[in-house]
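Hello,

Our lab assistant flagged a job as stuck in the queue for most of the afternoon. It eventually completed. Since we weren't sure the result was trustworthy after the delay, we are filing this so someone can double-check. Below is the sequence as submitted and the structure that was eventually returned. Let us know if re-running is recommended.
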Amino acid sequence: MKKITLLLSFVVCAMVANAAVTLPITGTLAPTVPEGWTYITNDPAYPNPSFYTTAGAAGFKFSFENQGMLSPEFNTQSSVTVTLNVNALNQNTKTGTNSNYFTILGLNSTGETVATSTFTTIIVGKNSVDLTGVGIVKVKTTMTGYPNDGTKFCNVNMGSIEIKEKTTGLSTTTESKLELIVSGKNLLVKNVVEGSEVEIFSALGSKVLNAVVENGKVNIANLKSGMYVVRSGKMTQKIRL
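-- returned structure --
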């Protein structure tokens, strides 16, 4: 009986150890790779992830293409929201060849890709996308291009990666694309519900305006000429004034 009891205890412990985590989960990347997450690189010259870490708020430094993170396995989902929390964009001398700065993949239990999304804009702060597919149990986040801050291409200091279940429900906002038109001292905003919050960031990632859409527009009279990133909800778009 004792042998059977010990064997059953071992099996139960193994099952608990291999159990998928429950969403939401956050992988905090400062200053090391969090437990359960896997560092990804195809560059043999830099196999050690600690080379890219710096202490404190600076986060984990993504400095070349195809560098990334693979999440631990979580409870099966058909749709998740992935948020990249960026602490800083660091200008460098590299050039950009891919406008998809980060590629986010949803993987099933056999490692097959069942959902794909990309970031064509990266700002300091929260950057979110949705993945929808059958049997998503892991998320792979890969840097596939160098974000441009309006002046130069940049490395990315990533503070954390968050994964949560996508909330469902009816919405009057068309989340497909943010449409912006500069008209004099106003920014005309389409596909955004009246009264929605709009955030505007400088090319360096600093928030320069927080406003509410009134009569389909936002006043931008106090903004100087230059490149900006406009965000409303999960939608972002670049504009030049």
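-- support follow-up --
The delay was a queue issue, not a problem with the job. The result is valid. The longest strand covers residues 77-91. Residues 2-17 form the longest helix (16 residues).
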